[in-house]
Design brief:
alpha/beta, 17 strands, 11-stranded mixed β-sheet, two-stranded antiparallel sheet, disordered C terminus
Length: about 375
């Protein structure tokens, strides 16, 4: 069976329109982007955890104090937050704030902080908070600062249930299983790339299943009715926009950070990539929606039934978010330095659209 050819669209910066009033360096008073991440996404605690399991908590904490100047082995999450914090220039309001969450004791945090200095994530000559890092170590930090407050534009956690509770509450979160990386992967970058799947991540396409007599998410429709009926539905609705997906708020903030970072000579460039199975009419519908929503990426790649892994590696993504585990497995094989993150599909996304009457692509769509 012949595979679908990959389609690639590259967009020029002149098409990156910003919603008004657009923030700038001149009027920036607080961070634009807030990211939350768990401590165990940054470092491999393997040896220390074995001490804890075999000898108990006191021995574990003593071990961490004894090894305070021995850097912990880095994981993909460390590379990701280093890239995010690299947009914060010295002497200016941070563009990005990273909140570090854990229930660990002070001895563990002390070693983690030393490791952050060792790998160049933090500068010893500057206050930690001025560099955009905030430590949230109390036991109620997750509920108080993330779930209830909704202060994170993206929360990355190794704990799947935390992610599900946030998604069910309508907040952007992803589940990660970060791998250990070598120190070379932490080298400074001239360009940071964040990559996203489209469906169930940046957009939620709704289709009407006439056999079932109800509206369903496009992925469910494809599974139930087949590829060709789904393509026909996309063709009929090609001039209507697609509703925003659960990770769109994070993408929107990155979109603004990209514009501001482009004004600065002292920070890396930021590029946004959309890598999706959509091709043909389906791909163009997604592109037209992104442009109408002022979310134009640097590059849009439709792989059809091909692998996303090589495309993620080609763009050099620091982060790739998808809802399907098999695509994240492909990325791990092709681009092991990329942090793969899953946004598990939740029916609550569709229920919220139904509750607010927001079937944009059916009833109140903007005609493109």
């Amino acid at each position: 069976m012949q595979s679908t050819p990959t389609e690639t669209l590259v967009f020029q910066p002149s098409s990156f329109t910003l919603p008004a009033p657009a923030p700038s360096l001149a009027n920036l008073e607080r961070p634009i982007l807030h990211v939350g991440i768990t401590l165990d996404a940054l470092f491999d605690f393997g040896n220390a955890k074995r001490v804890k399991k075999e000898q108990g908590v006191d021995a574990y904490l003593a071990y961490m104090r004894q090894k305070i100047h021995a850097p912990l082995a880095p994981r993909q999450g460390l590379s990701f937050i280093k890239d995010m914090l690299s947009f914060n220039a010295s002497g200016e309001v941070p563009l990005v704030q990273v909140s570090l969450f854990s229930y660990e004791k002070a001895a563990v945090y002390a070693r983690a902080m030393q490791s952050l200095y060792h790998y160049g994530v933090l500068d010893r000559s500057r206050a930690v908070q001025e560099q955009g890092l905030v430590v949230k170590g109390k036991k109620d930090a997750f509920k108080r600062h993330v779930l209830n407050g909704g202060k994170c534009d993206l929360y990355l956690s190794t704990k799947r249930q935390e992610v599900i509770s946030l998604l069910d509450a309508g907040l952007p979160a992803v589940h990660i299983n970060p791998k250990t990386i070598d120190e070379q992967s932490l080298a400074p970058k001239q360009e940071v790339v964040a990559a996203f799947d489209y469906d169930r991540v940046l957009g939620i396409a709704i289709a009407f299943d006439s056999a079932a007599g109800k509206h369903v998410e496009n992925g469910h429709y494809t599974q139930a009715r087949g590829v060709m009926p789904a393509r026909r539905w996309e063709h009929r609705n090609r001039n209507k926009t697609i509703d925003s997906g659960p990770i769109a708020p994070f993408y929107d903030k990155l979109y603004i950070v990209r514009a501001i970072a482009a004004q600065k000579d002292t920070v890396p460039d930021l590029s946004l990539a959309v890598i999706t199975a959509r091709v043909g009419i389906s791909a163009h519908r997604a592109v037209n929606t992104l442009q109408a929503q002022q979310r134009t990426p640097n590059v849009f790649i439709g792989v059809g039934d091909g692998s996303k892994g090589p495309q993620v590696k080609k763009v050099g993504a620091s982060l790739f978010i998808d809802d399907v585990p098999k695509y994240l497995d492909q990325v791990q094989k092709s681009s092991p330095e990329t942090l793969g993150a899953q946004a598990p599909w939740r029916d609550s996304h569709l229920l919220r659209l139904q509750a607010t009457g927001k079937y944009h692509n059916l009833h109140t769509a903007k005609v493109l």
